[in-house]
């Protein structure tokens, strides 16, 4: 059984074998990308016999929707169950004209950032290209017919640069005018900062917007929050970021999750100013979204504002991520844990 949404599946070849134009493959997939069909039977411009063959040999969906939640601000979150019963999350965010999807790249995560729900149980496996594309398709179907996806952020579960080989073909579908037609500049890959993989992405395709998760601008603190930093070190991360910036010509984003009392002091802000001096960078400050069972706290409004003011006063470009979908636990890995807790009979997720 082949997956229709996998760009490498042999659909075009099979159509040719059956005496159809291989170009028809695009039209077949288009039905699904445009949200006009969810089965071959609904592809009414295809001969019936062809529909039956495709039905027997190709699968449209590899996932099922386990949960679909909607927040008051319009954020929608899907918990998808994969063929092997593992679960992943993806989110649709509405912000003005923007229709941004946040997608996962792995089941779980091996990076072990101490405040993040996704990595608490380690990584289970990489997602396939079809599973990544399917998140886009499933989320696009939540939009009314006159709306299109405008942005993609790979900021869900997993470390995208640890699964580049499957992610890049999926992002090519996001860009393809026959897919979702989203310009590459509107596609952000967020990484914990793996230098070799950043270099590889710069070689393969530096057109994506890269976001590097810093969370601390001094090695001791960063290693405490982002354990993989121990073997890598900030200097190597920043050098790789600089090389990506040279290759792409576009400003990078550095993400900084603010944890109350941990990395939000004036000294922490000054470390960050020093680290970014001379670099074309945007800092995306993300107030921590509390994860049940973890000891970290959200920053107070006062410490958050002080941190941001200090950066701005030193000329650093700062953006503060507004909280979206907090009530539906739209931070990576949270919904999956909630569901797992419920399944295990836990009362306090
Ligand atoms: N592995 C990639 C993608 C992770 S998710 C990376 O590390 O960048 C995207 C961002 O959300 C990362 O910066 C991550 O550290 C952050 N994040 C994880 N859990 C969070 C939480 N509970 N609250 C706020 N941000 C969180």
Structural account:
- The strands form 3 sheets. A 10-stranded mixed β-sheet has the order 3-4-5-6-9-10-11-12-13-14. Strands 1-2 form a two-stranded parallel sheet.
- Helix 4 (129-140) packs parallel to helix 5.
- The chain has helices at residues 11-17, 24-33, 48-57, 129-140, 164-175, 195-204, 219-225, 229-232, 234-248, 266-276, 301-313, 334-343; strands at 2-3, 58-59, 64-70, 76-81, 87-95, 98-102, 106-108, 123-126, 151-154, 187-191, 209-213, 252-258, 281-287, 317-320.
- The protein is built from 12 helices and 14 strands.
- The protein is of the alpha/beta class.
- Helix 6 links the parallel strand 10 and strand 11.
- The longest helix has 15 residues, at 234-248.
- Helices cover 35% and strands 20% of the residues.
- Residues 342-349 have low confidence and may be disordered.
- The radius of gyration is 21 Å and the shape is elongated.
- Bound molecules: S-adenosyl-L-homocysteine.
